[in-house]
Design goal:
mainly alpha; two-stranded antiparallel sheet; 16 helices; globular; transmembrane
Length: about 400
């Protein structure tokens, strides 16, 4: 999250058309649409997401399904975004002085956006918004419910927050610039408030998941031993995974603050080592733990005849090759930082458009991750949790054609 002033010293064309406050709102709106698509597609595959997160089901099949309510909220948020940014464009016409002068418009939009989640408005899913805010309050301090009370929902939300870490940083920068400089639509200053605060805010989601993992470890270690849960070592390993984000954030912040070229070079090497460990560890965990794939298991398990190579016995999505595509995409998007190593692309991540693209790609990666994480939880939680159209693989022979 650089935004190097040496690369873009003035208000750039991207920020003239798409100021920082609107970028935050756009991604927030996109998140609601994404969750709606998650719910809808999994619903079509007969995966009961509400039951997994312990959310009340519909009392009647005639009631609007959960994804329908989510789409309704997303539509309202989209109309709000489009109306606000269109008015902003009409008033500013891409002129830098007017973009700064009319900064109140995107700020009013952000206030209205927050109000949509808080104010009990008619025709919007009030129960869903209340549940989301209650879960967010619990999760925001690293809390995690018991399994019977919706632990999976807490984990899902907290994991999603880690992918929005840079967006939270942008939100803070927006408010900081407005309060201290009176120009939230000016060129984003990611050192606003000092060189420590923004990195600290970006680290909070990982801190939340770290605390949740430690809480789960304590619960398991205090409970009577069960072979299904073990002694809690997996929770410790998961906590270590989230802790690997901290060296990345710290070395990146130090590198931006350093002025001596030799110090910058040394910190860059430290950052590279830290981000490599974080990315590869996180990718391994996505595939092997979050999705229960056998890609990194022993050769015998990986090449078992009971499932496609490197996958698992029960698979809901099809075609089968989709799993391999998503695994590759997950690895690629875990390593977007590698653009800094390319001499033709190293400055791209310092442009505002480049920063936004990387934020968007991480949100997209998390959206894909949700499908397979929920699928995995559904398979784990139900011995017969697959619908009529789901794919059950016995002795897999490499044929994934649909049966009539």
């Amino acid at each position: 999250m650089d935004g190097d002033p040496a690369v873009e010293p003035e208000l750039d064309a991207f920020s003239l058309a798409f100021p920082l406050p609107y970028r935050v709102g756009f991604i927030a709106t996109l998140a609601v649409w994404g969750w709606g698509f998650n719910l809808h597609y999994l619903y079509l595959l007969k995966v009961d997401v509400p039951s997994l997160i312990r959310y009340p089901g519909r009392a009647s099949p005639h009631h609007v399904p959960h994804h329908g309510s989510t789409y309704r909220l997303a539509t309202v948020l989209t109309v709000l975004f489009c109306a606000s940014i269109t008015l902003f464009w009409l008033f500013t016409w891409g002129i830098a002085s007017r973009v700064v002068a009319y900064q109140w418009m995107p700020l009013v939009y952000l206030v209205a956006l927050v109000a949509m989640f808080i104010v009990p408005l008619q025709h919007l899913p009030a129960a869903g918004r209340r549940r989301f805010l209650a879960t967010l309050r619990r999760v925001s301090i690293g809390g995690i419910a018991e399994a019977k009370d919706g632990k999976f929902g807490d984990i899902l939300l907290a994991d999603v927050l880690t992918s929005y870490a840079k967006v939270f940083g942008d939100l803070f920068v927006t408010m900081c610039m407005f309060l201290t400089r009176g120009g939230s639509t000016d060129r984003p200053d990611r050192n606003c408030g000092g060189t420590v605060i923004v990195p600290l805010i970006m680290a909070i989601p990982s801190m939340i998941r770290f605390r949740q993992c430690m809480t789960e470890y304590v619960r398991v270690s205090r409970a009577p031993y069960k072979e299904s849960t073990g002694w809690g070592g997996q929770h410790l390993a998961n906590a270590v995974k989230y802790s690997t984000a901290f060296p990345v954030i710290i070395t990146s912040a130090w590198q931006r603050a350093a002025e001596d070229p030799a110090t910058k070079a040394a910190l860059n090497k430290a950052w590279l080592a830290a981000v490599l460990v974080n990315s590869l560890y996180s990718f391994y965990w996505d595939v092997a733990k979050d999705w229960d794939m056998t890609l990194f298991s022993s050769k015998q398990e990986r090449e078992s005849k009971h499932h496609p190579f490197g996958l698992r016995d029960r698979l809901i999505f099809r075609p089968i090759n989709l799993y391999y595509v998503v695994i590759v995409v997950d690895l690629m998007l875990r390593c977007t930082w590698s653009m800094k190593l390319n001499r033709h692309l190293d400055k791209f991540t310092d442009f505002e458009s480049g920063i936004f693209l990387i934020e968007f790609l991480e949100v997209f990666r998390r959206w894909l991750w949700i499908f397979f994480r929920v699928e995995t939880e559904w398979v784990r939680s139900s011995s017969t949790g697959l619908g009529i159209d789901d794919l059950l693989l016995g002795n897999y022979q490499g044929n994934d054609d649909e049966e009539d």
